[in-house]
């Protein structure tokens, strides 16, 4: 069985001597031009067809993408085309065929975290949340630093299934694996509030003071929680600090949005 590092090398880095490099993130036209220049020098390079098929899929040229994946299967191990073609089919909206290829990829490369991440997205969109959650857990185990958004996605599915405590546990799993990510802690705070655990929400929000550098946004979020806890004196003092902090910042849409939020909180405190 091919190792995952070697698989990635073949898919993304393999190019013959003298071939033009395929740049990772320019515009799609530039990517296609670079790949075509490389193919002119190495028409039998499987990895280049896989790369071009991926780009075609991203811009919705599905027929061209499938032709490139078919050609790639002729030029090298066919299983290397399964994941990129599955990703293309997922973008096309063909969940059934995308799932079939994702299954085949995972059978060939059971230690590839990207295969499980991709299959989880297909299962989620197909409404099979249990399968999606199982695949995400496998991805979390195989990937040292998963995207925080995947933990949020798992939590969202669990909430939709009527399992908010399990959703909170998944967010805490992400916080343990990735460290104190504000995105995850804010989602957890929302769940604590939904469950009526205001003190737990306040405790979680306090942990964000240092990561968010005691920012005006952090202060306003805390003022909101203090108001809900009927701690008006603390809320007023912190709101005054936030107002002073905002007054010293340059005029930006973000600052104006925070000033609007501060105004709403001031009105709530005046009631």
Description:
- The chain is an all-alpha fold and 271 residues long.
- The chain is 74% helix and 0% strand.
- It contains 15 helices and no strands.
- The chain has helices at residues 4-13, 28-41, 46-58, 62-75, 82-92, 95-108, 113-125, 129-142, 148-160, 164-178, 182-194, 198-206, 216-228, 232-247, 253-270.
- Helix 3 packs antiparallel against helix 4 (62-75) and helix 6 (95-108) packs antiparallel against helix 7 (113-125).
- The model is unreliable at 1-25 (pLDDT under 50).
What characteristics describe this protein?
single chain, disordered N terminus
Sequence-ordered SSE layout with sheet pairings:
Blueprint lengths: L3 H10 L14 H14 L4 H13 L3 H14 L6 H11 L2 H14 L4 H13 L3 H14 L5 H13 L3 H15 L3 H13 L3 H9 L9 H13 L3 H16 L5 H18 L1
Helix pairs in contact: 1-3, 2-3, 3-4, 3-5, 4-5, 5-6, 6-7, 7-8, 8-9, 9-10, 10-11, 11-12, 12-13, 13-14, 13-15, 14-15
């Amino acid at each position: 069985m091919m190792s995952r590092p070697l698989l990635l090398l073949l898919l993304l880095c393999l190019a013959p001597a003298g071939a033009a490099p395929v740049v990772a993130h320019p515009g799609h036209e530039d990517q296609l031009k670079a790949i075509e220049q490389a193919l002119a020098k190495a028409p039998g390079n499987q990895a280049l067809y896989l790369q071009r098929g991926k780009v075609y899929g991203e811009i919705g040229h599905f027929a061209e993408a499938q032709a490139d994946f078919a050609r790639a299967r002729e030029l090298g191990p066919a299983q290397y085309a399964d994941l990129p073609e599955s990703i293309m089919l997922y973008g096309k909206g063909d969940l059934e065929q995308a799932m079939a290829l994702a299954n085949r990829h995972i059978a060939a490369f059971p230690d590839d975290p990207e295969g499980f991440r991709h299959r989880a997205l297909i299962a989620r969109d197909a409404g099979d949340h249990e399968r999606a959650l199982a695949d995400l857990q496998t991805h979390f185990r195989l990937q040292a630093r998963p995207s925080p958004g995947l933990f949020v996605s798992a939590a969202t599915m669990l909430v939709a299934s009527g399992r908010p405590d399990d959703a909170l546990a998944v967010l805490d799993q992400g916080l343990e694996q990735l460290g104190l990510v504000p995105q995850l802690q804010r989602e957890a705070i929302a769940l604590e509030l939904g469950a009526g655990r205001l003190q737990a929400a306040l405790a979680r929000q306090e942990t964000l003071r240092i990561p968010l550098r005691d920012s005006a946004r952090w202060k306003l979020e805390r003022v909101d929680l203090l108001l809900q806890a009927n701690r008006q004196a603390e809320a007023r003092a912190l709101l005054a600090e936030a107002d002073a902090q905002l007054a010293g910042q340059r005029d930006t849409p973000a600052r104006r949005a925070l000033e609007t939020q501060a105004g709403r909180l001031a009105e709530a405190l005046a009631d």
